[in-house]
Amino acid sequence: MEKSIKKIINGVKCEFYLTEDGKYTVRVKDNEEATRKLLGACKHKSVRADKLHFFIRGIKEKIENGALEGEPIKNISFEDAPQPNDNPIIRLGELIQKIYGENIETEVLSVLGDDHCPLVTVRITLPNGDYETASAGNQKVARKIAAKKLLDRIG
User: Fold this and answer.
1) Among 48, 71, 82, 94, which one is least packed by beta carbons within 10 Å?
2) 1: number of Cβ within 10 Å
3) Could you report the per-residue pLDDT of 80-107, keeping only the tens digit for each?
4) Cα torsion for 133, 138, 143, 145, to the nearest 10°?
5) Contact 118, 135 (CB under 8 A)
6) Sheet containing strand 105-112, strands side by side
């Protein structure tokens, strides 16, 4: 399990890190007061790893709703922040690996039609059992559609 996840949320450097009690919490990089304000706005100050994606989404909402108004932390970024990947399959795989420490599972459910114009249906399943299916003219496109649906749902 990864000990910390660095994210930039609306220009705010956030680090979600594993505490000694085995739960994740958040801190704003180099700004203790902003961290106190952010955690003060939260119902839960720390969460288990399986709830981390909900916690991250909640932190994002708090920042968007102005929990850090007046703090000099906008428009900053991690120096080594990776560039976002345009491939939804890769983005989903990386996100799920960070959250669960496991990989997504993909399977072809069916291939219908003639060889020159098939309809391929695939399913992507997350470690928590959530899944999404999609159909397209080939497996690659169907997987991208299913991954995009899951990313949209996860947030």
Assistant:
1) 82
2) 10
3) 445 556 899 999 998 898 888 899 999 9
4) -70
5) no
6) 105-112, 119-125, 131-136
Positive or negative torsion for Cα 153, 97, 88, 8: positive
Angstrom CA distances, 44 to 64, 76, 121, 129, stand at: 18, 26, 39, 24
- Nearest to residue 57, comparing CAs of 151, 154, 126? 154
pLDDT attached to residue 86: 81
Backbone angles phi, psi at 144, to 5 degrees: -65, -40
Question: How does pLDDT run across 13-72, given as a tens digit for each residue?
Answer: 889 999 888 899 999 888 888 898 889 888 889 999 888 888 998 898 888 888 887 765
Rounded distance, CA 70 to CA 61, Å? 17
Alpha carbon of 59 to those of 27, 30, 69, 128, 129: distances in Å?
10, 17, 14, 22, 24
Place of tokens 């180099």: 30
